[in-house]
Each structure stands twice: as C-alpha cells, then as structure tokens.
Specification:
Order of helices and strands: EEHEEEEEEEHHEHHHHHHHHH
Helix content: 40-55%
Radius of gyration: 20 Å
Structural class: alpha+beta
Strand content: 15-25%
Distance between the termini: 19 Å
Length: 280
Amino acid sequence: MSGIENFNLYGELRDFPDVVHCETIELRSRIHNWEFRPHRHARLHQILLVESGGGEALLEEERHSLRAGTLVNVPLGTVHGFSFTPQTKGWVVTLAAELLDQGLVEGEGLRPYLKTEKTLQYGSEIKDTVQSIFSEHANLFFARAHVLRAYSGLLIGLVARRIAEQSPIGSQRDGGLLRRFEHLIEEHALDHLGVAEYANMLGVTPTHLSRVLRNATGQSASGAIEQHMVREARRNLAFTNLSVSEIAYQLGYMDPAYFSRVFKRATGMSPRVFRQNLED
C-alpha cells in the first residue's frame, strides 16, 4: 500500500448528503468479505455496535477483540480496520464533522472523550438510541432532519458519558483555545511552525499557550506539535509500504536523518526498528 487510504464511507470517495448515514455491519461487510483494510475518514465520526458475532478491530496500532455487546468509537482521522466473523450483525452510525461541531458546546467537556478511539460494552440506552436513529433515517417524515440531529446529539452524549465512566480524564480549561490549536496543527502540520507562530495565530503568548496545554494535557505546546507529527509517522510506518525517506518527505522533513532523530527521541526507537517490531 503506497499510502493510508482516505474514504468517506469505506470504498467510497463521494460525500454522503444526509444528516447521518446508517448501515448495518453485515450489509457492507458482505461486499468486502467481512474484511476492511486499515483506512481513515478525515471528516467522519463512526460509532459501531456489535449485536451478535464478533471479530477484531484495529484502532491505530492496537487490536481489540469484538464480541456481542461491544461498542467501537472511531473518531475523525483515526486509522482503523475490521475483521468480522461471517454473519456478524450490528449497526454503524456515521456522523459528519459538521454535525458534531454544531452539537458540541464548548466547555461541556465531551470532545476529549469523543476523540478517544475506544471499544467498550454498551447498554440498552445506547442501543435504543441507535435503533431510533435507524428507524427515523429510514422514513421521510416531516422534521426528519431535526429529529435525526436530536437523536445524534443524544447518542454522542451517551457515548461520551460511557467513555468518561470507563476512562475519566480530568477537566480541561480553555477548551476553545485547545480546540483551535488542534485545528491549526492539523492545517499547518507540514509547515513545521513553531510555538510562537501558532500562538501568534491564536492571539495569545507562547507562554500562555504552553501553560494551557500543560494544565490540560500534561505536555507543552511544542510537545503537542511534535506528537502530532510522530503519530502521523507511526501511522505511515504501520500501514503503508513507503520507505522511511518517503515518509519523511511526505511529512515535510527535508532531511530524512533529522526525521529519524525526531522519531527516535519521541518513541525510543528508530523508524526502521519501529517497523521491524510491528512485523515480528
């Protein structure tokens, strides 16, 4: 594979025009022989519920067993793949990034949890909400879009609550600043900007930006910038056949040797050793 595949829905490059997309696990899985190669969705968030059967989910570099009653939270941009046992049944709800942006209120603290790739057991309230979304999605009743947005808001709230119950992560102050910083890193990652340049775009001092980051996440602003690049490098090393030099150039490093030093400083191993360990 020359690069990590980006899809809207798996195997499709076109946008879907609806408020949400609803599909059973078995419908698309049959087409692909129950296997989905590692890929990602740049602007889509997916929530999968396994009703029966099972298999395995790949989320970034970790593999998770799937069984009846498992929920899989797949945030925007997460590299993921699935291997389902034939005849596995369940539901997949796909939400556009714009829908999440409209429904999430700054300061309520849902975003950090929804951005966490996770498998966990779901309860009846989540299953009932997903079934309500599927039922509403299938009809053309008046106010359908409004009702779908409302049900989707309920679903992401319940999912965030479920993740928070399992993995609480302390409150984050200045959530709006953090979110804008994250968006800027995504937008300008290949430009290799420094903390001062990001702070200037955000209208704050570098010291304030780093303080907010450290209070909320435990790392500095420069650490967050580097972590983004290293994570993208790990994805490419794990899921593509690109050489180390090709990955370095793709990520905006003009010197592959410098890229390797950055990667080793962050992970404790060179890119080649990292890839070899994945293959062992």
